[in-house]
Design brief:
4-stranded antiparallel beta sheet, 27 helices, single chain, 677 residues, alpha+beta
Length: 677
């Protein structure tokens, strides 16, 4: 057994043993002072308000679940406290400066309020009123069985050729016993299938063959075939070329049962019911507010050519006794111009101006009726609404106190360019010519001829050799080869890239096998030396870098000034960990599974710091060291951690495992000796 395999087995056993130890201690250990913690505890105060533990926890609970755990640690809670404290003193300054009453801010606040009016109206008059009974769902299922049919799942070996003769030759080789992968590499013109050694999976008989496209004739040939591990079907000719294939697996299609797809049925039916109710609400509101649409005028509106609407521009296309509901052609055209190109296409290729008018009108009707019915009562105390209002004011405050105070001169940009000129280079790159072969014998024969022509600079002879011997005669030149371990246009290949750069321009390699198995040789044609990007090209990037740096500095300065102005006092010592060791181990494990190893080490640190009971801290110390070694690949830090582990815990179940890891990291393992013991 090799040393690497021995190490792998040993490491697996160590990890399994450690996880078992952690899992065995399932009783949650509550924080000793958790019963003293209150949500009303004051964590900071300032002139005008206080920040409670409840405020910090609410902020954390609004984070996505995958990030929440990190901020429930003491260090995470301190981060959130700093953020909330900064927000609060900026907000106090905003109120004192009257920024909340600035016209631009009031406009944004009004737009936000309108969005919540519309949201609440739609919710209470459409979505909340749609009730789907089991009878409704069953009826939809029965009337739309085709939507719930599971298509067959077919796998084939497939080769597409340019000519019938190539297809016949490929079929003959297959019937003689050659593997499909080898024959595919030789004949296949379909790059998708060729890259998968001739295999195409997930053919569903739905009009589209993966990697081939919409070839209904070929699909029909597949549909009529049978599973046979020896037979080769074809050749068949379609518009896409000549085809041969072997059907290897066929999972039959079936009608899914109602109980299997009940949730999917509801997901499909609910939008339809929503639309039915929306149309009814629309009709009722039009009648309530005496709204009429001039259909003859609608037909004259040209969304694509605005100039053709000049004669009707100021005509009313929507009329009502209520002035807020009236719409002119000009207003419709302005709405259209505000849209993105994708949104515009939706209307121009769809129902045209009438769809845009109906969309704008329903928003106006919803808004008008919501205000008339006092719907603000449903969102005035809404946390999200209040937070979004506050954020609008804070953004403007940050803009005034920080962004507008920062200036970046041309001289600063030029000086930064000269100082960091090496950061704005285009690395040297080379061009190479590569020849590809099916076997070493042909490659060596071609190399000898190529070498002679290369030495005599006979480019015409070289081109003839390429056309005669290379399997890819139309593609031999590969430009932009950088010294980075990647052969541009071909593959990642450290050795190939090293050959390109360790030898001078004009170098002709020997025949060798590339990382992907190709048999090749190449010559280096030319090199473009390193160059500097013009200052004018990178100035916007430099300007942005300097501006962001200055804004960060300005924000720190303003924050410190506001902390003094509003007598901000924070009480970080009142931040306490409320998580059990078991929960922290769970968070660490989840973070590791998501390859978020930095967060995992933070959780282990929290266990070590807050649970020095000789059990939890013991396990966490080992797991952190193991993670740093095996996942983060930081051998020096891992060695320090394992040595500290043995010094802190000279005895324990993981002592031998820690010593094994140290020996492994130092390269002191003697083959099977440690494993056999």
């Amino acid at each position: 057994m090799s040393l690497s395999l021995t190490k792998l087995i040993s490491l697996s056993m160590i990890l399994m043993f450690t996880v078992m130890l952690v899992a065995a201690d399932t009783e949650a250990k509550a924080v000793s002072n958790s019963n003293l913690l209150q949500e009303s505890d004051i964590l900071a105060e300032y002139d005008g308000g206080r920040i409670l533990r409840e405020d910090i926890l609410n902020k954390i609970n609004k984070l996505p679940e995958m990030h929440r755990g990190r901020f429930l640690t003491t260090s995470g809670q301190l981060q959130v406290l700093d953020i909330v404290a900064t927000e609060e003193i900026f907000y106090q300054k905003a109120l004192d400066m009257g920024i909340d009453q600035a016209p631009e801010v009031l406009e944004h606040l009004s737009e936000l309020t309108d969005r919540f009016y519309l949201q609440e109206y739609y919710k209470r008059n459409v979505t909340d009123l749609v009730e789907l009974t089991d009878e409704d769902l069953q009826q939809y299922y029965n009337e739309n069985l085709e939507q719930f049919y599971q298509s067959p799942n077919i796998t084939i070996f497939y080769i597409q050729t340019a000519t019938e003769q190539d297809a016949l030759d490929a079929k003959a080789e297959l019937e003689a016993g050659a593997s499909f992968a080898d024959v595919s590499d030789k004949y296949n013109q379909n790059t998708y299938s060729k890259g998968l050694k001739g295999v195409i999976k997930n053919i569903r008989l739905n009009g589209n063959i993966p990697g081939v496209g919409n070839d209904y004739e070929l699909e029909n040939f597949i549909k009529e075939s049978e599973v046979d591990q020896e037979a080769v079907n074809g050749p068949f000719q379609t518009e896409m070329g000549w085809h041969i294939f072997r059907t290897t697996t066929w999972i039959p299609g079936r009608q899914k049962l109602y109980d299997e797809v009940k949730l999917e049925v509801e997901q499909r039916l609910r939008p339809l019911k929503d639309k039915e109710l929306l149309d009814e609400v629309r009709r009722n509101l039009k009648q309530k507010y005496s709204v009429s649409i001039d259909s003859s005028l609608v037909e004259q509106i040209n969304l694509l050519e605005k100039s053709k609407n000049s004669e009707i521009e100021f005509d009313l296309v929507v009329s009502s006794p209520n002035n807020e509901l009236k719409l002119t052609v000009q207003q419709i055209l302005i709405e259209f111009e505000k849209m993105s190109p994708q949104e515009q296409i939706f209307y121009t290729r769809g129902e045209g101006a009438i769809a845009l008018i109906e969309q704008k009108l329903i928003q106006k009707l919803f808004l008008l009726d919501a205000k008339a019915l006092g719907y603000e009562q449903y969102f005035n105390e809404n946390e999200d609404y209040n937070a979004m209002q506050k954020n609008i004011i804070l953004r403007k405050t940050f803009e005034k106190l920080v962004v507008e105070q920062v200036e970046v001169s041309d001289e600063e940009v030029k000086a930064r360019y000269e100082l960091n000129k090496e950061n704005y280079t285009i690395p040297a790159h080379r061009s190479i010519q590569v020849l590809f072969f099916e076997d070493h014998k042909t490659a060596n024969k071609a190399w000898r001829k190529f070498n002679k022509a290369h030495k005599k600079n006979k480019e015409k002879d070289i081109e003839k050799i390429i056309q005669k011997y290379s399997t890819k005669p139309s593609k031999s030149i590969y430009e932009n080869q950088y010294n980075n371990g990647v052969v541009t246009g071909l593959m990642q290949d450290e050795d190939f890239s090293k050959r390109i750069w360790d030898n001078p321009v004009g170098y002709l390699s020997d025949v060798f096998e590339a990382a992907n198995g190709d048999i090749i040789f190449f010559r280096t044609i030319s090199e473009t030396p390193k160059s500097y990007r013009p200052a004018v090209e990178v100035e916007p990037r430099i300007f942005k870098e300097i501006k962001q740096e200055k804004e960060r500095t300005m924000q720190e300065t303003v924050t410190e000034e506001l902390a003094v102005e509003y007598n901000l006092k924070k009480y970080p010592e009142r931040i306490k960990l409320t998580l059990s060791a078991e929960k922290l181990f769970e968070f660490a494990d989840n973070a590791s599974r998501n390859r978020n190893f930095k967060d995992a080490t933070i959780f282990y640190d929290q266990i070590i710091e807050n649970f020095p009971n000789g059990e939890d801290d013991y396990k966490a110390s080992f797991m952190k060291a193991f993670l740093v070694a095996e996942e983060m690949k930081d051998n020096n830090q891992a060695l320090q951690l394992f040595r500290a582990f043995l010094e802190t815990y000279p005895e324990g179940e993981l002592h031998e495992s820690a010593q094994f890891m140290i020996d492994s990291l130092e390269g002191n393992l003697n083959d099977m000796e440690m494993f056999e013991e």
